[in-house]
């Protein structure tokens, strides 16, 4: 009799779990999209398709690092920057922001931020460049300060750049999904917002790298867990711009470890013995091989719509994506995010 009771309880719990999973990815009715949400496209210094000018509030052009003498800014591919600036003719409200750093661009940051004279010279050069190209601000993406001293110097850089640019220009920074790159409370004295790199959270297959909630296929973190971490470290919801990935993380066999969205959707899955599935708890799609093993996790329009709902539900500052060049030819992901956050 006791075994029967335990069996009934287990079945009931399983049903509740399934019900919760079904509800977790449900679209919310909510209010119509409002224009105050940030919709930011990161654009890379190499050539590639740019987002339509009316489908973003800002373009972060990741093309700058400290120069060789650590006292100024080196911008790569200035002609591409000029083409981005030309989009302002189509959308005068568009903000063009110079982003500095990126993975693999660590050289020079510690040296520059560690000396007052170099840091102040760098901040002055930020001002010169913003004025010269009529930019709307700067974004920092040092990945990542290695210790507390470097983190403290990074905050000093935010302060110096804010003093140089004033309050009418954007100063923002990207931060890893754990929120441990710098002191968030102190940083928000100088930053307008923080761009959360809420991707690569499982690194690559067989785990999701962009899970909204924790399922058995989620990696080291999820968006919900990342947001909670940033909240405990001093950010408010309105300080956060949620990161969205326009690429997948594969198993380095059937799909590359980094696979552009365009290269995922152009595959003939059935012919290759693969199948697309949907994780109703993590709220993301994934592809499995003939054995049912996750071989690439990624985003699609359905999962991005749910993440945009999450942005609105929590009152986040908006969404940003890495990056527009990885979208398909129809710009399905770009159009989805613009439609949800900007109503365009």
UniProtKB/TrEMBL annotation:
Residues 1-24 form the signal peptide. It catalyses: Random endo-hydrolysis of N-acetyl-beta-D-glucosaminide (1->4)-beta-linkages in chitin and chitodextrins. It comes from the Bacteria. GO terms for biological process: carbohydrate metabolic process; chitin catabolic process. SUPFAM superfamilies: (Trans)glycosidases. Its EC number is 3.2.1.14. GO terms for molecular function: chitin binding; endochitinase activity. Keywords: Carbohydrate metabolism, Chitin degradation, Glycosidase, Hydrolase, Polysaccharide degradation, Signal. The keyword Iron does not apply. Residues 37-344 form the GH18 domain. InterPro entries: Chitinase_II/V-like_cat (IPR011583), Chitinase_insertion_sf (IPR029070), GH (IPR017853), Glyco_hydro18_cat (IPR001223), Glyco_hydro_18_chit_AS (IPR001579), Glycosyl_Hydrlase_18 (IPR050314). SMART domains: Glyco_18. Belongs to the glycosyl hydrolase 18 family. This is chitinase.
């Amino acid at each position: 009799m006791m075994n029967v009771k335990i069996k009934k309880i287990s079945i009931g719990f399983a049903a509740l779990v399934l019900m919760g999973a079904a509800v977790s990815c449900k679209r919310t009715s909510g209010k119509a999209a409002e224009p105050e949400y940030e919709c930011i496209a990161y654009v890379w210094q190499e050539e590639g398709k740019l987002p339509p000018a009316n489908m973003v509030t800002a373009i972060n052009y990741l093309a700058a690092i400290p120069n060789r003498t650590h006292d100024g800014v080196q911008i790569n591919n200035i002609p591409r920057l000029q083409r981005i600036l030309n989009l302002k003719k189509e959308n005068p409200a568009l903000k063009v922001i110079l982003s500095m750093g990126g993975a693999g661009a660590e050289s020079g940051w510690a040296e520059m931020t560690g000396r007052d004279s170099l840091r102040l010279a760098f901040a002055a050069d930020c001002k010169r460049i913003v004025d010269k190209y009529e930019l709307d601000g700067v974004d920092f993406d040092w990945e990542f300060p290695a210790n507390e001293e470097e983190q403290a110097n990074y905050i000093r850089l935010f302060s110096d750049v804010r003093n140089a640019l004033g309050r009418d220009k954007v100063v923002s920074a990207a931060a890893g999904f754990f929120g441990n790159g710098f002191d968030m409370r102190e940083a928000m004295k100088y930053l307008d917002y923080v761009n959360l790199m809420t991707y690569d959270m499982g690194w690559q297959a067989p785990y999701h790298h962009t899970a909204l909630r924790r399922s058995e296929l989620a990696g080291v973190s999820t968006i919900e867990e990342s947001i909670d971490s940033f909240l405990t470290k001093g950010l408010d919801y309105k300080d956060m711009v949620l990161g969205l990935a326009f690429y997948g993380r594969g198993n380095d066999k059937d799909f590359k470890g980094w696979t552009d969205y365009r290269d995922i959707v152009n595959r003939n899955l059935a012919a290759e013995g693969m199948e697309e599935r949907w994780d109703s708890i993590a709220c993301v799609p994934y592809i499995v091989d003939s054995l049912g093993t996750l071989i690439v996790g990624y985003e699609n329009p359905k999962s991005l719509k749910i993440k945009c709902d999450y942005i609105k539900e929590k009152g986040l500052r908006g969404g940003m994506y890495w990056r527009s060049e990885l979208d398909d030819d129809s710009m399905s992901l770009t159009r989805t995010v613009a439609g949800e956050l900007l109503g365009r």
